[in-house]
Amino acid sequence: MKKIIPLTMIGLSALTLSACSKKDDAAAKKAYINSIVEVSKDDYNQQEVKLKVDNLEVSSDDKTYASFAKMFKDSEMNITMNTNYESRVLDFDGSVKVNGQKYGLNMLMSDKGFYLNSNDLKSIYKVAKPLVNDKVGDYSSIFDRMVDGIDKPYLMMDKASIDSYSDEADSDESWSETIDDFFKSQELSKSDIEKEYKDVENSAFTQKGDEVTFKISENDVTFDALLKKLPGATAELSKTQLKDLMSQMKDYKVEQMDFVSTKNIRTQETKSTITAKITDDDKNSIDLKLSTDAKASKASKKATEPATSKTMTLEDLQNKVIESLTASTEQAS
Q1: Is 209 left (phi over 0), alpha (psi -120 to 50) or beta?
Q2: Is the pLDDT score of 191 beyond 80?
Q3: Pick from 223, 222, 218, 221: which is nearest to 200 by CA?
Q4: Which of 69, 129, 179, 253 is least enclosed by beta carbons within 10 angstroms?
């Protein structure tokens, strides 16, 4: 398989359907849309998201992809995202379970830069160290010194450092632009959502009490054709990003996909499952099942930046490592 299929695209490809309309279905569709509009309001400042890879099977001559599938099958991610629109701080707090191992995942973003929990970073590096050694060889000791040298609860990469790395990677977006996108109001108008869903048939929706269920199936469709029919699927992408996405996915085809999403319009919790089979032009295939559980809430707790006393900047860490290497060289001579 040319590259691992982005799992986010599986969710995007789950919105095409066909059927006939009923009055009750129309009411269910309206309730579903109203829930989308409600949780987009800025006072819903906390999102709890759970993602589980229930099944992941890859058929390919390239054994790398089989190893990838084995590693991520039964993996889980649990994240709580707390957004402080006033102070412009976004706090990710959670964990990831991969290949039977669980890792903490706590990071924060603000206008100043990006913060990563030091203990989480050290745990991830410990697992990734063999791979790092293979890539950097004799320089691996420098990475060891850098990780060992982190002596504050958070490691921070400031805005200037991020922009410098972005320039090297030929990225057109600055950190200020990235953070502006995160903290601009996410509120959606009902009329806009209704326009996005106007071609979605009412019969895709059913309601029982507070729960509204959205079910669809799709067979034998390319990603290109699918994206053209999706309500708002590419609204957040720039023209360049959309072009790149289309280029990456042009050789893939969705042979089969089933999507079921149930919203509780009282608690604003949404549980979804996606099953799919996707193939490429080389007859490689991937079979998967994903389940998600997401809940939006109005949290009294507001995300805050770590105190300076608890933060080590990347520049401070680099200087510390240079001093250590210099001292070691002088002692050796």
Answers
A1: left
A2: yes
A3: 218
A4: 129
Rounded alpha-carbon distances, angstroms, from residue 205 to 17, 195, 218, 227: 11, 17, 16, 21
Instruction: Using the Cα atoms of residue 101, residue 131, residue 164 and residue 181 in order, give the sign of their dihedral.
Output: negative
CA dist., res. 252 & res. 226, Å (int): 11
Sign of CA dihedral 86, 88, 94, 96: positive
pTM: 0.78
Residue 158's contacts (CB-CB under 8 Å, 6 or more residues apart) are 112, 113, 313, 314, 315
Secondary structure of residue 164 in the 3-state scheme: helix
Q: What is the pLDDT, as a whole number, of residue 252?
A: 83
Predicted local distance difference test score (pLDDT) of residue 289: 95
CA distance 222 to 8: 16
Where b means 16+ CB within 10 Å and e means fewer, 254-286 reads beebebbbbbebeebbbbbebbbbbbbeeebbb
Tokens of 321: 């490592």
Is 182 a residue whose pLDDT tops 90?
Answer: no
- Residue given tokens 């229930």 in the structure block: 54
| Calpha distance 246→228 (Å, rounded) | 11
- Tokens 């009055």 sit on residue: 23
pLDDT interval class at 3 (50, 70, 90): very low
The answer to whether the CB of 252 falls within 8 A of the CB of 223 is yes
User: Roughly what angle, to the nearest 10 degrees, separates helices 175-183 and 159-168?
Assistant: 110
Question: 34 and 266 in contact (C-beta within 8 Å)?
Answer: no
